[in-house]
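S2.1 Query sequence (Beta-lactamase)
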Amino acid sequence: MENTKPKTSKKKQIFRIILFASTFISLWFVPWILVKAWILPLPNTVQEQVDQTLGYGFDGVIVYVDEAGKPPAIYTAGYHDSAKLIPAKPNALFKIASISKLYVAVAITRLANENRISLDKPLTDYFPELSDRVENAGKITLRMMVQHRSGIPNFTDNPEYWKNQPNTDVDVLKYALDLPANFEPNKDYGYSNTNYLLLSRIIEKVTGGSRQDYFKKEILIPLGLNNTYGSINEVNIEDVMSGYYVGIDKDFKNEDYGMMLATAEDVGKFVRALNDGSLLNEQEMEIYTSLYEFNHGGLAAGYQCLAEYHKDIDAVIVQFMNTTDFEGYQWNLLEITHSRVVKILRKGK
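Output structure tokens follow.
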């Protein structure tokens, strides 16, 4: 009996040491900057929150707020161009990346309502040449593509896409061809930029013009959106907010990925119209509601953004932040700071 107690005590001591060490190690890897962003006292105003956001490593921030019954407001902090020390501009153009998927989904909805396309026809009806190059192309419908249920590989997940940046004069679709499907059509969900690349080309094939031309006719002009563009080739580059990537000494605003640009105000007006039914008629709204979402984010090198309508406070919030890392921290900070803006607005109700 006398020899048993010391052994038990020693085991407990070793266990405690291991537990302490593992706890210490786990704390070492806690993303404290995210914890700080969550637990800091909530500011009283949106501008204070926007100013606070700069402390998390962002070069520039733009936040557009449209609360029903109040004039829209735009808040800024930091720099439009940090190298030239140009302050952030409320009307700056910004690469909105995947927020453009909302515009594509609207266009597809309108074409479907006009019976110019069928949501339930396969991809091969529009591009028969892809039958042997996209697995299951004969079974993948446009509806599945809009909803990211096609199983088509995401071209931006292909390492070759990133090795060959900026992919000038290259059809980026090649990075998704001749690859196995991620899953059987309509059997799972898998976010894929390839879906919307192909949908954009279907819009162009059916309308006989560019995607942007169709957007102008059906979305931008009717809504009075005069500061939304199809690529940087259509704008004065000095109007574009600079974009930065953590750890890389480069301004990404000159990189042409063929993505849309817009002011926060234009994106906000679009999201408001999409959500309040003034963009789509009743039949179109029924189709759209069955197809896609009403809010969206966007992420590209140097640019991340979030555009959301919050029904409970009848408010649209668009947030632009011109610093990214692709490790997830900057994106998480975008979501956290966006949610804090929403809380501030709720408190004011």
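Confidence is low (pLDDT under 50) at residues 1-7, 17-30. The longest strand covers residues 73-81.
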